[in-house]
Amino acid sequence: MSPYPTQENGHYHLTRSGWVRKDGAPFPVDRVETWSYSAECPADDAKEQVCLKRIWKAHELAEPERDSLRNRFGMPIGLQTGRNITFECDV
């Protein structure tokens, strides 16, 4: 039996010390952003489809400071040739 299709969902949280994966509450108290994560791969020879969507941000932290943390730590899912990544921001 084939292991495909595969699907995974969760949450990544940007903190001042980097990215933390925690899928359920309580979320990290020091988070500055929360991104929902979903990944799906329909077949062995297909690219993985990943969606990262920012669903929460700390309003007390200025946007340039959050940008600086994202620049420092990158995004929680790395770029790869076998992966298509979509980024969305609800907030």
Q: What does this molecule look like?
A:
The chain is 12% helix and 46% strand. By secondary structure, the chain is mainly beta. It has one domain (6-89). It has a five-stranded mixed sheet. A hairpin with a 2-residue loop joins strand 1 and strand 2 (18-21). It starts with 5 loop residues before the first strand and ends with a strand. The model has no long low-confidence stretch (mean pLDDT 92).
Binned strand content: over 45%
Helical run tally:
1
Structural class: mainly beta
Helix percent reads: 10-25%
Low-confidence stretches: none
Terminus-to-terminus distance: 41 Å
Mean pLDDT: 92
Give a short account of the largest sheet.
5 strands, mixed
Order of helices and strands: EEEEHE
Basic shape: elongated
Counting structural domains, the number is 1
Total beta strands: 5
User: What strand order characterises the main sheet?
Assistant: 2-1-3-4-5
Radius of gyration: 14 Å
Features:
91 residues, mainly beta, five-stranded mixed beta sheet, 1 helix, elongated
Summarize the entry for a quick read.
With about 90 residues, the protein is mostly beta strands.
Write the layout of secondary structure elements.
Layout: E1 6-15, E2 18-21, E3 31-41, E4 48-57, H1 63-73, E5 83-89
Parallel strand pairs: 4-5
Antiparallel strand pairs: 1-2, 1-3, 3-4
